[in-house]
Predict the structure.
Amino acid sequence: MSLDKEILKQNSESSSPSGKLEGASVVIIDYGAGNIKSIQFAFKRLGIDAVLSNNIDEIKAADKVIFPGVGEASSAMKMLQESGLDKVIPTLKQPVLGICLGMQLMCNSSEEGNTKGLGIFNTTVKKFSKELKVPQMGWNVIKDLKSSLFSGIKENEFMYLIHSFYAEHCEETIAATDYGLNYASALKHLNFYGVQFHPEKSGVKGEIILKNFLAL
């Protein structure tokens, strides 16, 4: 059985997990640059009704915040600036999880559109070499895991990725992936977490990571 079919099978088997997680208030930041519905559905499978919102008061009041992102960095940052969220996100005190472009925007800067980031993670985002097939799209492993975010996740577990830019390693790296070079596929600074992969598209193991985030 192919990896994709196996993950789909696992997803189907775990779509109504026993022991649902209750009581957590989760807000997914809706600023026009995220694949937010798939993330919302992933939390729904865990028994959590995550709220889609760009309301600053609602975001600040949440127990947990998801900062997604799909698309081009400079355009996404412009949307954050227009809503004032670029000033709000770095001040949040609850656990925050950036996903894909969301994680990259939390870095100091990105070569994509020569974009200045939110400066939460002390690293830069660079484009993969032209010698590689970009975007990197599909399943790849994460390793060198260093956070309770990965409790129950084994080394070299497969996660789903799609991206043309990568975060350079720094002291805040909590997971790594190889694609032409070794890069940071997850970062952590204080209450801020970022993952380059898509846990909402990574089957049962991705759901474990989302559960771990809810338990932080």
User: Anything to note?
Assistant: The CA atoms of residues 95 and 191 lie 5 Å apart. The longest helix spans residues 203-215. Confidence is low (pLDDT under 50) at residues 1-21.
